[in-house]
């Protein structure tokens, strides 16, 4: 007999800790036996119980040997349904964040601001997919006053799915750029896919925080009953870049009394992440001084716009991910940096489909506009487009070459898609 969501939730209330990884079993955890292309979690259910799990949720009856094994028709669906049921127990703001670039930084900044005033739960790291989102929701405790949920997507209908169990009351789309073009089917597909968050807000009387600077948002957000705008020129909150070397400093000119926010973020393109965090704080009545303190105290990690000093070199480590849009702004920002001996270490961009070769060629053309001490390209379709730069198949090989140089006094930009593991070059 299959367990119902209601019955599963009653168990979850007794044991409110959920995991999908037998390597991280804590005493009393509920283990969800997910399946993948090369593994079957059901086969590890007994191991989970033996390791201390209170229950194991499975979808293959032959693995159920006692009443600690809870049978469902599909484990992933059961996990998502449980997350939705848990979400429905809260009457608090759930802020969903998606976008092609900057969503994790935006999530961290919004969380930092709201946490000054409210008990706020948010996505850990970038657990922002069909497994990570429900796991994030299930970590929210009864004392929650706010929730900030990051949503990643590489194809249409994915954000729609997340919204069905996150039930966001507020939403932010950071931007719609050239990311996951293969899955979305081009830039219009990206806008349609990311716009599924706006669709949910529109249909459910939600609130959107929208960047006025990007014209396409005016069309995408049309029809949402409550929109709060931000930007560098127009909006309830406006601001400009005071400086971006070595870190971004933003002058807030509207929304509060004029104030300057000195961040530890690298790159002027982060201004939009700062502005929407300020707007969210203003909307939820966070004091201006607390907003400023939170944003100035935030320090990026996980290879996202980090400024690292190592072996006498200054390194902008932005190696968590890359797409044509984020590469463009990162390279242009780096080119404007007032520094000598600038070097590019760029990894290939993934999931671009038929447009991959063309986008890598455009990147080569962009690089050629500027003068660099050295350009090192790694993997992906950099191998298949003509260029006169140094090339390596893997970041490991590039790291070996770089270590052998024993060079100091350089400024490095290190960026590439996650699978390129570009952080190995400077680790």
Summarize the structure.
The protein is 33% helix and 21% strand.
Mean pLDDT: 94
Please give the number of β-strands.
21
Please, how many domains? 3
Amount of beta strand: 15-25%
Structural category is alpha/beta
CATH class of the largest domain: Alpha Beta
Helix coverage percent = 25-40%
Please report the number of helical segments: 15
Question: What is the CATH topology classification name of the largest domain?
Answer: UDP-N-acetylmuramoyl-L-alanine:D-glutamate ligase
The CATH homologous superfamily of the largest domain: Mur-like, catalytic domain
How far apart lie the N and C ends? 51 Å
**Large-scale geometry:** globular
Known CATH architecture of the largest domain: 3-Layer(aba) Sandwich
Descriptive account of the structure:
This protein is 33% helix and 21% strand. The mean pLDDT is 94. The protein has 3 domains: 5-73, Udp-n-acetylmuramoylalanyl-d-glutamate--2,6- Diaminopimelate Ligase, Chain: A, domain 1; 90-297, Mur-like, catalytic domain (UDP-N-acetylmuramoyl-L-alanine:D-glutamate ligase); 306-425, Protein-Tyrosine Phosphatase, Chain A, CATH 3.90.190. The chain is globular, with a radius of gyration of 23 Å. Strand 13 (237-243) and strand 14 (249-254) form a beta hairpin. The protein is built from 15 helices and 21 strands. The termini are far apart. Helix 4 runs parallel beside helix 11, helix 6 runs parallel beside helix 9 and helix 13 (324-336) packs parallel to helix 14. The strands form 4 sheets. The chain has a 9-stranded mixed sheet, sandwiched between helices. A 6-stranded mixed sheet has the order 16-17-21-18-19-20. The protein has 427 residues and is an alpha/beta fold.
